[in-house]
């Protein structure tokens, strides 16, 4: 099996226990090459690229990127991947106790990896509160569950933040301010779950099982560990963001001219 390209961003400075391919011997080593060495003879073929994604893409501007697995942990890197316009991006990510995989397919009207993954500065508490108040109740409930907070507590806090300041700490509130929240904190086994979900989707596509793969209105699969029996643990839709570049007529025309597949 060919696993595809491996592109590293930085040599590891600390041991990352979420990565089974990284250990104490790999500090300051080239991550992609080390992964290739460790998987030698396993049946998985890797071609390492010990450069940044941007540098590799700039050196190969005409190379078609049919399928890209996005396993990065920040939105700057996600935007860099999307700029190269892959046919399909399978994006795995975590937010607190939630793991999710989204399939972004290059088709008119479909969301791209930039949608709802803004690159933004840390917002003030007042801005975070006003943003939460502007959301509908169902969205706020989902965001609360993602952060391990009972939705009723979040509603009471938003009704009077000063009176109920004990319900939500400043640190917790800032986690809501990170948009996707992926930089706020993460847990090893949640990352492992995201990796398993991503691998399952990749294998499913590789085997040609179209009836069950993520696509269109069911392009998102998520699982959060706070409430495992929650109805939120399901397959649903990651919609386009109205203010994203992918909604512009010029972008849609370009995608329509080169749709995937
Ligand atoms: Zn978009």
UniProtKB/TrEMBL annotation:
InterPro entries, A to Z: ThiF_NAD_FAD-bd, Ubiquitin-activating_enz
Residue ranges constituting the THIF-type NAD/FAD binding fold domain according to the UniProt record: 21-226
Pfam families hit by this protein: ThiF
Gene3D superfamilies cross-referenced by the UniProt entry: NAD(P)-binding Rossmann-like Domain
Family annotation (SUPFAM superfamilies): Activating enzymes of the ubiquitin-like proteins
Example GO molecular function: ubiquitin-like modifier activating enzyme activity
Name of this protein: THIF-type NAD/FAD binding fold domain-containing protein
């Amino acid at each position: 099996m060919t696993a595809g390209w491996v592109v590293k961003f930085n040599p590891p400075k600390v041991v990352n226990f979420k990565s089974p391919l990284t250990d104490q011997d790999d500090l300051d080593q080239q991550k992609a090459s080390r992964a290739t060495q460790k998987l030698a003879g396993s049946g998985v073929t890797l071609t390492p690229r010990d450069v940044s994604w941007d540098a590799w893409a700039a050196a190969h501007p005409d190379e078609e990127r049919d399928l890209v697995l996005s396993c990065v942990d920040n939105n700057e890197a996600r935007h860099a991947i999307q700029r190269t316009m892959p046919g399909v991006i399978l994006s795995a990510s975590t937010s607190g106790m939630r793991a999710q995989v989204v399939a972004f397919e290059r088709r008119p009207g479909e969301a791209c990896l930039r949608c709802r993954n803004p690159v933004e500065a840390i917002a003030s508490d007042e801005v975070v509160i006003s943003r939460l108040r502007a959301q509908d109740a169902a969205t706020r409930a989902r965001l609360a569950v993602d952060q391990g907070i009972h939705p009723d507590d979040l509603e009471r806090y938003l009704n009077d933040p000063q009176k109920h300041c004990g319900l939500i700490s400043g640190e917790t509130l800032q986690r809501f301010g990170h948009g996707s929240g992926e930089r706020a904190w993460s847990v090893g086994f949640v990352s492992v779950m995201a990796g398993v979900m991503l691998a399952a989707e990749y294998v499913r596509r590789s085997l040609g099982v179209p009836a069950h793969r993520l696509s269109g209105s069911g392009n998102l699969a998520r699982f959060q560990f706070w409430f495992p029996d929650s109805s939120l643990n399901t397959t649903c839709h990651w919609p386009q963001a109205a203010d994203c570049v992918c909604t512009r007529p010029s972008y849609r025309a370009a995608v329509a001219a080169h749709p995937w597949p």
